[in-house]
Amino acid sequence: MSQCCSNLRRHQRRISGRKSTVELRDFGQYQVLFLAENEKQLLEQIQQVPIAEYKAQHRRLAVSEAPRQQKHRLHRHPVNTIQALVDQHTELLTVLESQVLKY
User: Fold this and answer.
1) Predicted confidence (pLDDT) at residue 27 exceeds the cutoff of 70
2) According to the model, what pLDDT value does residue 74 have?
3) How far apart are CA 24 and CA 17, in angstroms?
4) Could you give the CA distance from residue 102 to residue 78 in angstroms, rounded to a whole number?
5) Is the separation of the CB atoms in 46 and 81 below 8 Å?
């Protein structure tokens, strides 16, 4: 696994010409390689991906990226992020209290 990541970083450096591979880490969980000679072929290859599969993978990616994004928001905008968490907590408490009153 370590060797695979090392190879990915080396290729990223070679392609981008930069020393840093932060973009590779921040880009996401995976990258897709299309072998096409022109834009028309690329579009045809992309259109072959079933929309249901694309949406399922997109949801999985969003779920896996959520912790990283939350950490980023907490670092960049701590007051707003903490306020949003407090608001979510308050909303959940309200919902739970209303459910308890129904029973």
Assistant:
1) no
2) 92
3) 13
4) 37
5) no
Stated pTM of the model: 0.52
Exposure pattern of 25-56 as b/e (b: 16+ CB <10 Å)?
eeeeeeeeeeeeeeeeeeeeeeeeeeeeeeee
Which contacts (CB < 8 Å, 24+ apart) does range 57-64 have?
Answer: 60/29, 61/28, 61/29, 64/29
- Letter for the amino acid at 49? V
Per-residue tokens: 38 = 């022109």
pLDDT by residue (tens digit) across 28-71?
Answer: 556 667 788 888 988 898 889 899 998 998 898 889 888 888 99
d(CA 50, CA 56): 10
Residue recorded with tokens 């959520």:
66
81 in Cβ contact with 74 (< 8 Å): yes
